[in-house]
Design a protein that fits this description.
Elements: H1 2-13, E1 24-25, E2 34-36, E3 43-47, E4 53-60, E5 64-70, E6 75-79, E7 86-95, E8 98-115, H2 117-120, H3 129-135, E9 142-147, E10 162-167, H4 171-174, H5 184-197, E11 201-207, H6 219-224, E12 232-236, E13 244-248, H7 251-257, E14 267-271, H8 284-302, E15 313-316, H9 329-335, E16 351-354, H10 374-389, E17 402-408, E18 411-416, E19 420-422, E20 429-433, E21 446-449, E22 451-454, E23 458-462, E24 471-476, E25 490-492, E26 502-505
Parallel strand pairs: 2-8, 8-11, 8-14, 9-11, 14-15, 15-16
Antiparallel strand pairs: 1-3, 3-6, 4-5, 4-7, 7-8, 9-10, 12-13, 17-18, 18-23, 19-25, 20-21, 20-24, 22-23, 24-26
The structure holds 2-acetamido-2-deoxy-beta-D-glucopyranose (NAG) (4 copies).
The site of one 2-acetamido-2-deoxy-beta-D-glucopyranose has 6 residues, from strand 4 and strand 7.
């Protein structure tokens, strides 16, 4: 009897809706969410009955607004007037007398976190995990959301699933099982950024272990690099079990990025590249920047111009994997910068990079490809965000990079763009010895050259076993695992930022 009465009540409430209609927000809006603050305008959308009017109201102590839109093809969408950072607000939508209220909504900066397993790597897996989890709830203004792992062969309008709905941080939310929720790099980036900005931060995680860049790219982006839709690679699902997963191009762009285009975001951070060390590696200096360009264009368009068309994009330069092999990691590190060695540069504007080559972790329980030092990674990313995304002056975020290389008297003097702290090494620099006076694209004869002398902004290496005229190229830290923990030979003067690897050719490329 009880159940029967209940059933009748439901019929009356939803009586006006025809079969298949539903009135709700899209999957990535919910209580506890952070919407993008002013000057950008937050986009909010959901589903309704075609033709019906939807009233949207935002109510809070700092400001109020009411808007009305009609439902087109089952979807309503509104662009809110700009709202300053803060909250909480209640966001209410009403259609035909049915009301949905989202409480505890904040306005702040929304950052998207993408990539593969080192982004998926959870806060529960880092060094000091228990301390990190224990203090998490002290940051209730940093909120998290995570898309579920889904693939699709067509571009989806909404996420097919949600792993973590918008939540305040708690040890339970952040401390999911390994590689599930929540991303350590994403969380720590948000927490450190909050410390610097002191207003709410929304973190949207959408990443998947073992994935190549092609899976996260649209066809448009792939075509720009001469790649076809059919490209498929396979990888272990994470480096700890044996599930082999096939990755077709675009499947994660379709299911886990395309649906998010309609929300307004401040920027994105990214930790990926390991899965391309052996797959389309030579294309990565095209595919990675092309993906960034394409995401920027698509998020700008999807948010009707609210997300900046050059939104800041930060990424982690690959850390270490194996000591003895060359697995293509140096090449990917170089390609991550579009072969410039540093970012931002002409090709990759408004980007920032956390160098992580000096954070090896041979004893990581999840394999050495997953170093546990995510605090350092997040710290370096936040320096880049402060300088590039927030244009804070006087924040150094790039390690030393050469701006002059002179060959003379059996020595090479490498002058850096900043003051350095150096430790002499016998083999971190290498020269390519070749009789051909042209750019050697694949030099087979690399000779280590010892660092002999250092100054406040230069180092001097001595050339042995190669006639001066035959020195065709110079490279630094060009191996998978070039140094011990925080002990690379060259850092910024404060010892914080390691010099990234480089390869410089003496002769110009042949055209
Ligand atoms: C939001 O709604 C809740 C529950 O209805 C109410 O208690 C609260 O006062 C509202 N907050 C604002 C800012 O309007
Ligand atoms: C772990 O915590 C200790 C003690 O607070 C601290 O000294 C150390 O730097 C922390 N390690 C990391 C990686 O955060
Ligand atoms: C979201 O943006 C994409 C890309 O511009 C567009 O194709 C799609 O129709 C938009 N979805 C909604 C619900 O507005
Ligand atoms: C190179 O060596 C010659 C002869 O020893 C010396 O005169 C010259 O100053 C040296 N050049 C530099 C740049 O050290």
């Amino acid at each position: 009897m009880q159940a029967w009465v209940h059933f009748v009540v439901i019929l009356i409430i939803f009586g006006e809706l025809s079969v298949g209609d539903e009135f709700r927000f899209a999957s990535y809006y919910g209580e506890h969410m952070v919407l993008q603050k002013a000057p950008e305008e937050a986009v909010v959308w959901g589903y309704g009955t075609t033709g019906a009017e939807v009233q949207i109201s935002l109510a809070g102590q700092q400001s109020e607004q009411v808007k009305s839109v009609s439902v087109l093809n089952g979807i309503w969408k509104v662009i809110l007037d700009p709202v300053q950072a803060g909250g909480p607000y209640n966001l209410t939508v009403v259609q035909k007398g049915i009301k949905i209220v989202l409480t505890d909504v904040l306005f702040g900066d929304v950052w998207l976190c993408g990539g593969q397993s080192n982004m998926a790597f959870t806060l529960g897996q880092v060094y000091n995990a228990s301390e990190e989890l224990a203090i998490a709830s002290k940051f209730p203004n940093v909120r998290v959301f995570q898309a579920a792992l889904e693939k699709s062969s067509v571009e989806l309008t909404d996420l097919a699933g949600v792993e973590v709905p918008w939540s305040r941080p708690t040890p339970e939310v952040l401390g999911g099982k390994d590689f599930t929720h929540f991303s350590a790099v994403c969380w720590l980036f948000g927490r450190y950024l909050y410390k610097s900005l002191n207003y709410p931060i929304g973190l949207v995680e959408s990443c998947w272990s073992g994935t190549p860049v092609e899976a996260w790219s649209s066809l448009r982006a792939l075509h720009r690099c001469g790649l076809k839709e059919s490209t498929t690679s396979s990888s272990l699902s994470s480096y700890t079990d044996d599930d082999l997963i096939e990755w077709s191009s675009t499947v994660l762009w379709n299911a886990m990025i395309h649906p998010l285009l309609n929300m307004t975001i401040k920027g994105a951070i990214w930790y990926q590249g390991e899965a391309n060390a052996q797959f389309n590696q030579d294309k990565y200096s095209c595919t990675f920047p092309a993906m960034i360009d394409d995401w920027r264009m698509a998020f700008h368009e999807g948010s009707e111009g609210q997300t900046a068309q050059d939104f800041p994009f930060g990424f982690v330069q690959l850390s270490t994997y194996r000591k003895v092999h060359n697995d293509g990691f140096p090449e990917i590190r170089w390609h991550q910068t579009a072969d410039y060695g540093f970012v931002p540069n002409e090709r990759m504007k408004k980007t920032f990079m956390a160098v992580a080559v000096d954070l090896p972790d041979i004893f990581s329980p999840w394999g050495s490809i997953h170093p546990r030092y995510k605090q350092d990674v997040a710290n370096r990313l936040v320096l880049g965000a402060r300088a590039v995304a927030y244009e804070e002056t006087g924040v150094s975020f790039q390690g030393p990079f050469p701006n002059q290389v002179l060959i003379d008297n059996n020595t090479i003097i490498i002058t850096y763009d900043q003051k350095i702290r150096a430790t002499l090494s016998t083999d971190i620099f290498e020269i390519c010895c070749s009789e051909e006076k042209k750019q050697c694209s694949s030099c087979s004869h690399w000779i280590p050259v010892p660092m002999k002398e250092q100054g406040s902004d230069y180092v001097l290496v001595t050339i042995a076993k190669c006639p001066l005229d035959n020195v065709a190229a110079l490279r630094y830290a060009w191996s998978d695992w070039p140094c011990a923990f925080k002990a690379c030979p060259i850092y910024s003067a404060d010892g914080v930022l390691p010099a990234p690897l480089f390869i410089l050719n003496r002769w110009p490329a042949e055209s």
